[in-house]
Design a protein that fits this description.
Elements (H helix, E strand, L loop, with lengths): L1 H46 L8 H7 L10 E6 L6 H12 L6 E4 L9 H13 L6 E3 L13 H8 L3 E6 L2 E6 L5 H18 L5 E5 L18 H10 L4 E4 L5 E6 L2 E6 L19 E7 L4 E7 L5 H23 L1 H30 L8
Parallel strand pairs: 1-2, 2-3, 5-6, 6-7, 7-9
Antiparallel strand pairs: 1-10, 4-5, 8-9, 10-11
Helix pairs in contact: 1-8, 1-9, 8-9
């Protein structure tokens, strides 16, 4: 009876050891594979130089240097990327197929949270696209937040939050300073001063924001404290278009001669809300301006696959979270890495020995 119990205990221990060995091999293998993947992505990011065409000051400086069609202005708009590079890369690939695009405006929420590491990650992903079009950036609510990453940090990376420039006799105004009541008041003053001094000489006026004022119930927006003041200025100075993002969809509404165009399909997750599935697709928006006409081209973009989204999450977490943790806890990280390697080596060795024992022919029984 004792011998039977011993055999059962031995078999149970053998099974437990086998199960543990397999779990160690699988978990260790996955950890090593993820580490190698993140290391490759980090190396790939390091190969790309910091983009000299991204940011409101840099982009404005590049505009006069680009060859242009004298009678046609063509610009692109992408909204709400949210650190989802796979779909954003698909949007940029389609943009590169277009000829004679003078400039690009990003309508905010380039990142998913207000953190410097995520902004740096976005900039490195932008650099990987090798896009050379002058690119302006409007601050979104996911880009800036008081106490986390606010306007001082944003402007160090991308230039002034509120900006204006003229191209092809059209006035462009970027209003990124809308994410606090104080900033809205500053932005209103900037907007009115810009329109008062430059509107008379401009054929068209294009304004870019992240939130749009709720000038109509048909505009997908969360609104702003001083939205009525913004709307009054747009109508007083006959602004042609106001472009916004925030809602991850496409929607066009004209109110008192001003066109409000929501174009937030640059990569962020698509979610149904009170507007249902209207305009609910990823897209690239192109605007073409001739002497007496403005043409809107909206190009649908296929979303990234589930596997691509899974890989981009691993990449983003590895570069923006795991790597900083390793850098701040070098000794602990080294011990954990060594433990993973040792355990994985033990598991592999144990499985090889078990396999060899299984294949070994039985010993002949003596007559």
């Amino acid at each position: 009876m004792t011998s039977v119990r011993g055999v059962v205990a031995l078999l149970s221990w053998t099974r437990i050891r086998s199960l543990v060995a397999w779990l160690v091999v699988l978990a260790g293998g996955c950890a090593i594979a993820v580490a190698l993947y993140v290391a490759f992505q980090l190396w790939d990011h390091g190969r790309s130089a910091s983009p000299d065409n991204l940011g409101n000051t840099r982009a404005a400086a590049l505009l006069p240097l680009r060859p242009t069609q004298s009678n046609v202005l063509k610009f692109a708009i992408i909204g709400d990327i949210n650190n989802r590079p796979r779909t954003f890369e698909a949007v940029v690939r389609r943009l590169k197929e277009e000829k004679d695009v003078d400039l690009l405006v990003l309508l905010g929420d380039c990142v998913s949270r207000q953190e410097l590491s995520l902004h740096q990650y976005f900039i490195s992903e932008f650099a990987e696209t090798c896009l050379t079009i002058p690119t302006f950036v409007v601050a979104g609510n996911h880009d800036v937040k008081a106490g986390m990453f606010f306007y001082d940090g944003f402007e160090q990376l991308y230039g002034p939050a509120n900006f204006s420039f003229v191209s092809h006799d059209c006035l462009f105004i970027g209003l990124g300073g809308i994410h606090s009541d104080q900033k809205q008041l500053e932005t209103l003053s900037f907007l009115e001063a810009t329109l008062a001094t430059q509107r008379a000489r401009a054929k068209k006026v294009f304004v870019f924001m992240h939130y749009l004022p709720k000038a109509s119930e048909d505009i997908p927006t969360d609104g702003m404290t001083y939205e009525k003041e913004f709307q009054n200025l747009f109508e007083k100075y006959r602004v042609s278009y106001v472009f916004g993002g925030h809602y991850h969809r496409l929607a066009r509404t004209e109110v008192n001669g001003v066109v409000y165009l929501v174009t937030g399909g640059g990569g962020a997750r698509l979610e149904k809300d009170r507007f249902g599935d209207i305009g609910l697709f990823h897209h690239l928006t192109l605007i073409k301006v001739r002497d007496n006409s403005v043409c809107e081209h909206v190009i649908p973009i296929h979303a990234a696959s589930q596997s691509d989204r899974f890989l981009e999450k691993i990449e983003r977490l590895g570069i923006t979270w795991a790597l900083p943790c390793v850098e701040h806890h070098m000794m602990t990280s080294a011990v954990l890495a060594a433990a993973v390697v040792v355990l994985c080596a033990w598991g592999v060795t144990d499985r090889i020995r078990s396999l060899l024992r299984f294949r070994r022919p039985p010993r002949p029984v003596a007559p």
